[in-house]
Amino acid sequence: MEPRRKAARALSAERLFGLRPELGRWGFVAVGLTINLCLGAVYAFSLFKAPLIEHWGISATASGFPFMIFLAMFAVGMAVTGPFLARYGPRRVSLVGGLLVGTGWLLSGFAPNIAVLTLLYGGIAGGGVGILYGCPIATSTQWFPDRRGLAVGLTVLGFGISPLVTAPLLALAIAHLGVLPTFTLFGAVFLGLLALLALPLRFPPSGWTPAGWVPTAKQKARAGIELDRGQMVRTAAFYALWAGFMLGSVAGLMVVGFSKDFGTEVAGASAGLATLAVSLFAVLNGLGRPAFGWLIDRTTPRFAAVTSFALILGAAAALFLWGKGNLATYLVAFSVLWLNLGGWVAMAPAATAALFGPKHYPRNFALVFSGYGVGAIVGTLLSGAIRDGTGSYLPVFLPVMGLAALGMAISIVGLRPVRAQPISG
Predict the structure, then answer these.
(1) Who contacts 375 (Cβ-Cβ below 8 Å, separation ≥6)?
(2) What is the CATH number of domain 225-419?
(3) Is 2.70.70.10 the CATH number for 12-208?
(4) Can you list the pairs that 277-281 forms with residues at least 24 positions away whose Cβ atoms lie under 8 Å?
(5) CA distances (Å), 305 to each of 82, 174, 215, in order?
(6) Closest listed residue to residue 343, CA positions, set 395, 384, 293
C-alpha cells in the first residue's frame, strides 16, 4: 500500500491539463465528451439509408443492416474490452479502438455492395466503438469518486448530442461528395482526431482522492465493497441492473428508430416539424445523461431506475391513449422517452461503480453493457415487426408500457446495495 500512497501524494503536487488535479481532472471529462461526439455519429446513420438505396438499388431493410450490426458489435466490443482496459489502461485501448473506428469508416467508402459495407462499417467501426466507448467512461469513473454520476453523465453527453453536430456535416458531405466518399472523409478525420484524444487518458494512482473531499456516510458505508466479476454475478443486484439496462434500452431504442415517422404518420406533424422534433429529442437524449448521473449521486441507483421507468410508463401510456393527431403529446412524450434512454446510458456505468466498487469497474461494466446490446437488437426488431403486423406505430407502446412496469418491479426488488462480498466457491 505504501507505494500507492506515495504515488497518490505525488499526484497532488502535479498538474493535469495545467491545473491542480481537482480542477484538471475535468479535462478528462471534456476529452471523453469529444470522443463521444465522434462515436455518436452512428445515430445519424439514417442519412445514409436513402442514398445507399438509390446507389445500389437495395431494399430499405437491407440499407439498415450496417446500423444493426454496428449496434451488435458495439456491445461485443464492450464485452471483450474490460480485462484489457484494466490491464493496459485507457490510453492504449483507446488507440486501438480509435484505429478501428477510423479505418472502418474510411474503408467503407470503397465498399462494392451492402454486404461489404455491413462488414466494414458495422463490423470494424462498430467493434472499434465498443472498444473505445468504455475508456473515457472508466477514466471519469476513477477520477471522480465524489461526483461519479455527474462526471460519467457529462462524458457520455457527447454521444447523445452527436447528431446535432455530425448530421449537418454528414448531410453536406453526402450532397457534395456522394454517399461513399463521405464515409472515407469522415473516416480520415476520425482516425486522426481519436488518436490525438486518446493520448491524455490515464487512471489516477490507486487510492487517490480529491483534496478536501469528505465522503458522506453513504459513501463511507460503500467504501469497503469491491466485487470482481465473479463475485458480482452472484448478486441479485447485478441481474437487476442488467435487466434494467436491457429493458430501458429496449423501450428507448424501439422509439428512436421511428420518431420522425410517428410524427408524420400518427401525430399529424409536417415532415419539416418532425425533422426539427428529432433534433429536439436528441438534445433531451444528451441532457438525460448528466441529469440521471446527478440523480444517482444524490440518491441511489434503485431510486433513479424506478424514477426512469415511471417516466417511461407515463410517456408510453400518453402516446397510446392520446398520441393520434396530438402534436403536444407527441413532442412531450417522445422528449421524455429520449431523455430516459440517455439517462440509462449514464445510470448503468454509474450504478455499476456505486454497487460493486470502482476497483474492478472496467471488467464489471463490460458485462453489464451487454444488456444494451441485447436491448438494441430486440428493440429494433420488435418495433419493426409490430409496425409491419399492425400497420401502425401506436401498438408499439403497449409492450413499452409492459417493459417499463416490469423494470420498475425488478428495480424495486433487486436493485439494492450489496451488503457484503459473496464468499467464493
Answers:
(1) 245, 246, 247, 248, 249, 250, 252, 253
(2) 1.20.1250.20
(3) no
(4) 277/330, 277/331, 277/334, 279/163, 279/164, 280/331, 280/335, 281/334, 281/335, 281/338
(5) 24, 40, 23
(6) 293
The structural domains of the chain, with segments of one domain joined by +, span: 12-208, 225-419
Q: Which residue has the cell 410517428?
A: 262
pLDDT at 241 over 90: yes
- Residue 193's pLDDT is 97
Grid cell for residue 193: 482526431
Separation CA 111–CA 118 (nearest Å): 9
The cell for 42 is 452512428
Tell me how many degrees the CA angle 200-201-207 measures, rounded to the nearest 5: 120
Q: Cα separation of 330 and 315, whole Å?
A: 9
Cβ atoms 174, 187 nearer than 8 A:
no
List, for residues 190-212, the tens digit of each pLDDT value. Answer: 999 999 999 999 999 887 888 88
Beta pairing partners, 16: 19
- Asked if 103 contacts 123 with a C-beta cutoff of 8 angstroms, the reply is no
